[in-house]
From TrEMBL:
Annotated organism of origin: Paracoccus amoyensis
Pfam families: OCD_Mu_crystall
InterPro entries xref list: NAD(P)-bd_dom_sf, ODC_Mu_crystall, ODC_N
Full protein name: Ornithine cyclodeaminase
Coiled-coil positions: none
């Protein structure tokens, strides 16, 4: 007698890290970034359909662990993600993540996937999507300050989506900069390694800051930022973690994902609660304008929001239907009689004995 096999409703597609790398290579990094940006943009257009709540965070002295849930009424998605800046000292990732997409009608998960790689991709896709609406006309050069795990994805997203052709790199760790220079070779970009932040922003139309320290930091001072630039501030994402001097914020038109979350975690935690900001979805739908003048400083105060991860999960769920880059997990109990979980165990035990 053979052991009982998983029932037809037991199995859930699971995309591992290896499976995600296969999908990325099949689509191409830039192709995947462009596709992700399109899914994210579509979901910003239907922003009002989503359940929205600030992410649920458990903070510690060393970092943060967060859950990021949302639903559009048909599907439900969440991401588990951590941020631990000191992890790299022990050979670990600063950010790791996984996610689940479920069917609202049944509550059954339809996809489980790694999201460490996917978060890097969706963060970069979101940055470039926003910049497409806010950057100065004809922008070609970006300063990339902070050359860690996210930097190459950001650079390639801005190339593919915004037409950036020159990247000026700076990190307090020269080895991180050299790593990024090496990885970006042959990718169709002019890459310049810089020795200071001030050098990196020379001639830059866009400034991206992506640093990891969990403290009130000043990566950009007020005198470093001239008129007409777009700032993509993506490193600040929890209370006490910022990158920009407060005076830059007061000179900028600030665009955010979800104000109740950004006021707690973003650069604007430095400002009064009533300081005006614009929600990016309103720019996408045409309800309000983005960049309005050549001299305007636009600032995307990005902390990442659950709808962006939902978009990424929705995209991967479509990709795996056309690919074999996934495994089937025996995740859900599927007894012959839905009311007889105990009997399922008994029958499995008898099968074990017979085998």
């Amino acid at each position: 007698m053979s052991l009982p096999k998983p029932g037809p409703m037991s199995l859930v597609p699971f995309v591992s890290v290896e499976g995600m790398m296969q999908l990325i290579l099949q689509q191409g990094v830039e192709g995947m970034l462009v596709d992700l940006a399109a899914y994210i943009e579509d979901d910003f257009r239907r922003w009002e359909q989503f359940d929205k709540t600030p992410r649920i965070a458990a903070h510690s002295p060393e970092g943060v662990i967060e859950l990021m849930p949302t639903s559009d009424g048909r599907s439900y998605g969440f991401k588990y993600v951590n941020g631990h800046p000191k992890n790299f000292q022990s050979g670990r990732q600063t950010v790791t993540a996984f996610g689940v997409l479920s069917d609202v009608d049944t509550g059954y998960p339809v996809l489980i996937t790694e999201m460490t790689l996917l978060t890097a991709l969706r963060t970069a896709a979101t940055s470039a999507l926003v910049a497409k609406y806010l950057m100065p006309k004809g922008a070609r050069t970006m300063a990339m300050i902070g050359n860690g795990a996210q930097s190459e994805f950001q650079c390639l997203a801005f190339k593919a989506i915004c037409g950036i052709d020159t990247i000026r790199l700076y990190d307090i760790d020269p080895n991180a900069t050299q790593k990024a220079v090496h990885n970006l070779q042959g990718k169709g970009l002019t890459v310049v390694a810089c020795k200071t932040g001030e050098e990196a922003i020379e001639g830059a139309d866009i400034i991206t800051t992506c640093t990891a320290d969990k403290q009130f930091a000043t990566i950009l001072t007020d005198n470093m930022v001239g008129s007409g630039v777009h700032i993509n501030a993506i490193g600040g994402d929890c209370p006490g973690k910022t990158e920009l001097h407060r005076d830059i914020l007061t000179r900028s038109d600030i665009f955010v994902e979800f104000p109740p979350q950004t006021r707690i975690e973003g650069e604007i935690q430095q400002l009064p609660e009533d300081h005006p900001v614009t929600e990016f979805w309103q720019v996408v739908t045409g309800a309000t304008k983005g960049r309005t003048s050549d001299r305007q400083i636009t600032l995307f105060d990005s902390v990442g929001f659950a709808t962006e991860d939902f978009s990424a999960l929705r995209y991967i769920n479509e990709l795996v239907r056309q690919s074999d880059a996934f495994q089937k997990l025996d995740l859900l109990a599927d007894p012959d009689d839905p009311r007889d979980l105990f009997g399922m165990i008994e029958r499995y035990g008898r099968g074990m004995d017979a085998a």
